[in-house]
């Protein structure tokens, strides 16, 4: 570790290996696949992650000349090739982006049609229907709308095909507004609940104990200055701001911008009032407008 950065060197070159993950990991599976794709010999990943975008990455690399089998199962085998070539590939739709818009509609009580939907939304839509959100399948799109007040729910994040950790914070906003007591259990990402303090600034009633957060529903959230501590927390704060009374100012938005394409423009196209500001003076002027 030098100057706060980690430097890694394979002094004798990389070699194939048999790797077992004690806990399924998206990033770990992806990085081993990428590292092994041009290492001579066969690398085997056991207890591999099964997320749809793991399968998509394998398909993408195979389209460029890689030799990867087993993606989507517990065991992925990568036989290294000498080189990759160019190609044309269409990436699958993003399940978390679709889920983020579903959460926004559920929190604000609006209605939306989401087109070009991914085929892996059941884990999200089933839980949201339990909370009082209507999700109607329209073949290549879905209609999402909230009918009546949100209902309490218990959610535990687990690797695919279970409820995704990347929908934890967005769903927590719904729990803040739902009737009764809701419980969110996080079993994937260790520091996921850092956003809870920011929601408390907006009037949420929530307590965190390790990897469990308990939310007591409130009638309304209130706008406040908050900070996006990570990508999904930032998306959740946007949703909370849309549902809250008054103006919400969100800092550290670089976390949000790195993970969503034109998110602010898409929300504004749905009737939101979101604008980017360059400095505190401009933010204060907008807040008092």
At a glance:
With 289 residues, the protein is of the alpha/beta class. The chain has helices at residues 26-36, 52-63, 95-108, 122-130, 168-177, 196-201, 231-243, 254-257, 263-269, 280-288, and strands spanning 18-20, 42-46, 68-69, 75-79, 111-115, 133-137, 141-146, 154-157, 181-186, 205-209, 212-216, 225-227, 249-251.
What key phrases describe this protein's structure?
four-stranded mixed sheet; alpha/beta; 289 residues
Could you characterize what this model shows?
The chain is built from ten helices and 13 strands. It is α/β, with parallel strands linked by helices and 289 residues long. The strands form four sheets. It has a four-stranded mixed beta sheet with strand order 1-2-4-3. β6 and β7 form a beta hairpin. It starts with 17 loop residues before the first strand and ends with a helix. The mean pLDDT is 94.
Radius of gyration: 21 Å
The CA-CA distance between the termini, in Å, is 48 Å
The strand order across the widest sheet is: 1-2-4-3
Order of helices and strands: EHEHEEHEHEEEHEHEEEHEHHH
Low-confidence stretches: none
Strand content: 15-25%
Mean pLDDT rating: 94
* Tally of DSSP helical segments: 10
Helix vs. strand class: alpha/beta
Name the helicity range. 25-40%
Largest sheet entry: 4 strands, mixed
Tally of extended strands? 13
Envelope shape:
globular
Note the topology.
Elements: E1 18-20, H1 26-36, E2 42-46, H2 52-63, E3 68-69, E4 75-79, H3 95-108, E5 111-115, H4 122-130, E6 133-137, E7 141-146, E8 154-157, H5 168-177, E9 181-186, H6 196-201, E10 205-209, E11 212-216, E12 225-227, H7 231-243, E13 249-251, H8 254-257, H9 263-269, H10 280-288
């Amino acid at each position: 570790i030098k100057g706060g950065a980690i430097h890694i060197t394979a002094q004798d070159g990389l070699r194939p290996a048999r790797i077992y993950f004690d806990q399924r990991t998206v990033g770990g599976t992806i990085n081993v696949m990428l590292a092994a794709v041009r290492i001579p010999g066969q690398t085997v990943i056991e207890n591999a992650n099964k997320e749809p975008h793991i399968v998509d990455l394998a398909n993408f690399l195979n389209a460029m000349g890689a030799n990867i089998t087993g993606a989507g199962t517990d065991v992925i085998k990568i036989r290294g090739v000498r080189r990759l070539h160019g190609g044309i590939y269409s990436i699958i739709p993003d399940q978390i982006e679709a889920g983020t818009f579903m959460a926004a509609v559920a929190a604000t009580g609006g209605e939306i049609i989401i087109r070009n939907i991914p085929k892996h939304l059941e884990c999200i839509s089933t839980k949201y229907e339990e909370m009082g959100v209507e999700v109607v399948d329209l073949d290549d799109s879905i209609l999402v709308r909230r009918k009546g007040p949100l209902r309490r729910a218990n959610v535990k994040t687990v690797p695919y095909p279970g409820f995704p950790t990347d929908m934890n914070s967005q769903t927590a906003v719904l729990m803040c507004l739902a009737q009764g007591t809701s419980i969110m259990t996080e079993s994937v990402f260790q520091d996921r609940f850092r956003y809870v303090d920011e929601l408390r600034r907006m009037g949420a009633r929530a307590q965190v104990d390790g990897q469990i957060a308990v939310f007591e529903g409130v009638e309304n959230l209130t706008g406040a200055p908050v900070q996006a501590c990570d990508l999904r927390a930032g998306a959740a704060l946007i949703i909370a701001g849309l549902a809250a009374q008054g103006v919400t100012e969100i800092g550290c938005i670089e976390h949000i911008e790195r993970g969503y394409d034109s998110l602010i423009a898409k929300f504004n196209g749905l009737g939101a009032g979101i604008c980017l500001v360059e400095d505190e003076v401009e933010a204060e002027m907008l807040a008092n407008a």
